[in-house]
């Protein structure tokens, strides 16, 4: 077995608790780096180019988030398919998934890039971007559309590697991309020496360069290491999309992408309700939301790690390990999320003071709503972990239904019905109620649902004879 294989053990082996933790931590690190990158970029734009520029980028970012969310589910479907294939020791199927995914993402990203570039202003006007912000948002978003092929393909490769049990390589190249982006932002925005000042376009150009460089470096590294999922010259035929795999990527990925849209659209509705109580309440909610973003990161990282780890064990038919992965994942959620929530309760005022003035109504309101709502993210974390397990088999529609019920049919009606009597507290209490409801429904589906019988593919892809030939170990492909 080669040194590379030794560094990348299958997720079907070893102690579950340690393996899951070591796999989840790099995913968490990648999430933190992405948030840090966005915060630093917003700081440069907001402090040195003004509120209109920041507003323009904020509007453009909503469109970018929607477009990235649309392919998140497809990337997640690829992660699960690769994981199941490797768990079953079927290298043929794993490489067919990679080949089909590469062709699909290249074609989709080019189409999105071209269509978006020529319809940028229309999309921003449809969103209702203020005129003073539109002049900044339009050139910024056009350059982001130029970067879209690199962003899509880079994201696909990162998710595929995680499906193969490797979370450290994506973290390393995410760090490269973020550091390069942070360094290039002020240079390209304001210019220096022979580098001209590009203004707001410079920030988007930094994204284009950092994503492209990281993508090229990642591909070069995978081929230099002879990664077992690389497509050799003799395997380029796998780039021709396989209809069965493509159908699974789209129809299994779509519900997972819609889950993100349900979450973000519900958040927009809650913001609309909060805005009705004035700027102080909006500011308080905005500050608390900044903390909530970080509170949710461990649960999201554990959920992603659980999904990849469970997928390999589903492929290997190790159902006892799948059940233990779920239990360990839930325990880690309570441990990590609970620790963060405890810190926020102890330093509630100081944490919120990072975003709000020390003396004012907004800070008092933020402390109050945090006391009511922040603890409920432990419940939502359980939901994320259990969803990660059940979708590893291909059961993707029930989680979407559960989220839709909790975030649209329970949370908003509860807030609307009690707002006349208890005011904004109705909004804050709707968060624990929605989180508790989603957790109970997720637990019920995990316990009694038919997710163990679900399938990602309607029919096997790899030929049995070839699959058996490569079955003994993934590591043999590395050598």
Describe this structure in words.
- It is a single chain.
- The relative contact order is 0.13.
- It contains 18 helices and no strands.
- The protein has one domain (15-453).
- By secondary structure, the protein is mainly α.
- The radius of gyration is 23 Å and the shape is globular.
- Residues 1-8 and 462-479 have low confidence and may be disordered.
Question: What features would you highlight for this structure?
Answer:
80% helix, membrane, 479 residues, disordered N terminus, Membrane_Transporter-Flippase, MdtK-like, MATE family efflux transporter, transmembrane, mainly alpha
Indicate the topology.
Layout: H1 3-7, H2 16-49, H3 51-87, H4 91-118, H5 120-127, H6 131-163, H7 168-190, H8 200-224, H9 243-275, H10 279-315, H11 319-346, H12 348-352, H13 361-373, H14 377-390, H15 397-422, H16 425-448, H17 464-469, H18 475-478
Helix pairs in contact: 2-3, 2-7, 2-10, 2-11, 3-4, 3-6, 3-9, 3-10, 4-6, 5-6, 6-8, 7-8, 9-15, 10-11, 10-13, 10-14, 11-14, 13-16, 14-16, 15-16
């Amino acid at each position: 077995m080669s040194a590379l294989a030794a560094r990348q053990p299958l997720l079907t082996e070893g102690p579950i608790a340690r393996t899951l933790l070591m796999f989840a931590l790099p995913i968490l690190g990648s999430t933190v780096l992405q948030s840090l990158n966005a915060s630093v970029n917003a700081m440069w734009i907001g402090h040195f180019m003004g509120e209109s520029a920041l507003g323009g980028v904020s509007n453009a970012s909503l469109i970018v988030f929607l477009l990235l969310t649309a392919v998140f589910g497809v990337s997640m479907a690829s992660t699960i398919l690769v994981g199941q294939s490797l768990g079953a020791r079927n290298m043929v199927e794993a490489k067919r998934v990679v080949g089909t995914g590469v062709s699909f993402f290249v074609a989709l990203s080019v189409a999105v890039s071209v269509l978006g570039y020529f319809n940028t202003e229309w999309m921003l006007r449809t969103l209702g971007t203020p005129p003073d912000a539109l002049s900044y948002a339009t050139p910024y978003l056009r350059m982001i559309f130029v970067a879209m092929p690199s962003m899509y393909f880079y994201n696909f490769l990162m998710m595929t590697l995680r499906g193969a049990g490797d979370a450290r390589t994506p973290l390393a190249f995410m760090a490269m991309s973020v550091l390069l982006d942070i360094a290039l932002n002020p240079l390209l925005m304001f210019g220096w020496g022979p580098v001209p000042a590009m203004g707001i376009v410079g920030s988007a150009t930094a994204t284009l360069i950092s994503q492209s460089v990281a993508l090229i470096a990642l591909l070069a590294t995978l081929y230099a290491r002879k990664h077992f999922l690389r497509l050799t010259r003799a395997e380029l035929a796998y780039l021709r999309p396989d209809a069965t795999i493509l159908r699974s990527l789209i129809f299994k990925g779509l519900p997972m992408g819609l889950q993100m849209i349900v979450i973000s659209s519900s958040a927009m509705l809650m913001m609309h309700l909060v805005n009705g109580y004035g700027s102080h309440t909006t500011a308080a909610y905005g500050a608390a939301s900044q903390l909530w973003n970080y509170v949710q990161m461990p649960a999201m990282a554990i959920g992603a790690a659980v999904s990849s780890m469970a997928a390999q064990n589903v492929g290997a038919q190790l159902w006892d390990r799948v059940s233990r992965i779920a239990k360990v994942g839930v325990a880690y959620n309570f441990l990590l999320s609970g620790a963060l929530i405890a810190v926020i309760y102890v330093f509630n005022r100081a944490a919120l003071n990072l975003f709000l003035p020390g003396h004012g109504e907004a800070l008092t309101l933020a402390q109050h709503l945090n006391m009511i709502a922040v603890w409920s993210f432990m419940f939502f974390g359980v939901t994320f972990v259990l969803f990660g397990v059940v979708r590893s088999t291909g059961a993707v529609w029930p989680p979407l239904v559960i989220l839709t019920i909790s975030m649209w049919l329970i949370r908003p009606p509860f807030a609307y019905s009690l707002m006349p009597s208890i005011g904004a507290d109705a909004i804050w209490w709707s968060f624990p109620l929605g989180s508790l409801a989603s957790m109970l429904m997720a637990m019920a589906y995990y316990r009694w649902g038919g997710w163990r019988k679900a399938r990602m593919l309607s029919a096997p892809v790899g030929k049995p004879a070839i699959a058996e030939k490569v079955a003994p170990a993934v590591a043999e492909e590395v050598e």
